[in-house]
Write the structure tokens for this entry.
Amino acid sequence: MITIYNILNGLPLIGVQPLDDSRFVSAINEPDRYEVDFITDVFYSNLGTRMSFIMMRGKRYYGYATPQIIKRHTHCYEWRCVFYAPIKAFDAFMARDVDPTTSSDSKIVFSLTANIKGFAQFIVDNINWSMPQDGLQAIPFTSWHASDVDDANEKTIDFDGNTILEAVQMIADAFELEWECAQTELRFWKILRNESDSLSLAYGKGNGLRGGIDVRFNEDYANILFVKGGDRNIIYDADINPDTTLLLPYAGSAHTYKKRRFYVNNDRRSIRLFNHPYTAGTYQKAVSFDDIYPSWYGTVKGTNNEFSVTTTTHWLKTEYASMMANPSGFHGVDVNNIPAKIGYVVGDGSDWASSTNIILSIDRENERFIIKGGQITPEDFVNQFYGVNGDRAKVYLAFDKDIFMYPWDNQWNVRVIGIGTETHTNNSAFYFWDDAIDFNLLDYIIPGENLRVVFESGVLIGKEFAIRYTHNGRKFEMVRQTIDDVPMPNETFKPVVGDRYGIYGMTMPTKYVELAQQRLFERACAELYDRIFNKINITVEIDPLWFRDYEAALPNRDDSKLVVGGMVEIMDEELNAYNDNRVATKRIVSIERNINNDNIISVNLDGNRSFLQQYNKDIKILNNTVSASTQRIWVRIMQDRAIAENNK
């Protein structure tokens, strides 16, 4: 009997008896779920909906899916309700470019660049930010966290209106990892358990397996793999990279991966295994690695730690202001030719010894003179020009008489009619530097594009800024911009020493292009390695009596090796390509258990990469090529063998 509860008050809604087809399913990259089939004599409006949950093995599972209902007649309703682990709830919330410390005004279409730890924290922040706060919580948890996760290089992922659960899968796919969730803990990793102590299973009484086996062949088989690289920092080059996306290295380039030798074909867009010619009829597949392109990833070595520079300007106007606007407005002198710096003295004309020598420049637009910074304080400025009684002082302008000849020598006596002080702030003054850069970025700017940096770590992770680069000192001046209504950089959002960044909007020196091409080749080899053999997917049923005794002997039920990610050895000659009598080990990718009888269990296993690599002694299969008819015969032989072994 299973009790279904009301999520609002925690009280029971109904007790149901699961039918025999009811099952628990646990699989890689999926929320755990209970699929419960039952019959009622009346209709209920909220069974299996978001307003209900069940308790199984001390954990809550929620009805996030719409139940399937068949009305046989007025007093017979057939139900299938699916109850999920808590993370399924986040298929109803959008992934946002969210800062948990700010408001909810955040974007759902954005790009984020981070390593796997950064993305894990991004998901946890989204989950915690999305938690209901009104007491009607569909998820009775208040804080999620990310466990230790495998580190990796940074990647950029584009989110476009994806739910949080979709974002979790996108991140796992981008890093070629898997995800799992235990209540409120999220983890990204390659799910592998008990690798060094795998569980051995075989047919026959007491060996763990019972008759019946389901074998499915991999449809991704290929001999030739077409490969497309990224398009960032790429410009057509007839010699280095004659395309707008990154190509593979030069034709004939070779790379060894797991003792297999791979070669680049003549088109530089595909690879093959050694001795696999590229001919008509050769099985082909294609992949894209948009995250591989010529790049420079640097580390901030230092900053000026300023977000703006404030300057103060002191100015004055004279009674002959027209000299600014009229080139010949003052004693016929062409002031357009007055040098930028003019020497002048301040005083009343009677005591030259007490006069102050200052340098000023002409501000023609505003018809005034500008005092050069740092020469006189505002207080002294006021006192000297206005005097203790507030009378306007006189200014004697002194020019170089070798350049200018005036009717009254080279000095003018004018009266000051106004003074003032202005403050200006430069908001583009923050910069950082990285002395490890070994080429001049300015020589590689792509025409029509601007240099940009995207931070790979730190508080600015994933944020992009236009920059002004100075090669002398390897300095990046960040153009201040508003992101999410916040001007950046600022005291909070700023790069610090040790932050990583990438540069975009430029091509790269040849050696960096070649490094990217080699990375693309290596990733392609690993991908083709997984496709060159006809891998299989195997589902086996566990002997219920053996499983009952197996779990009874465990100190703790959680110590079972029959779990998702657990490693299992299947003792079956046809399922394993023998090599020196070694048995291939397979990984459990999903488990199904009967709800009414926990001992009825089936497991789905990863395909065996060793399968068909060598001569099969029961069916002679060579060159990794298996016809559909041969596959059917071969599977039939395995099934018959399993039944025979089980009946011994």
Notes: Residues 510-529 form the longest helix (20 residues). The CA atoms of residues 383 and 389 lie 9 Å apart. The chain has a mean pLDDT of 76.
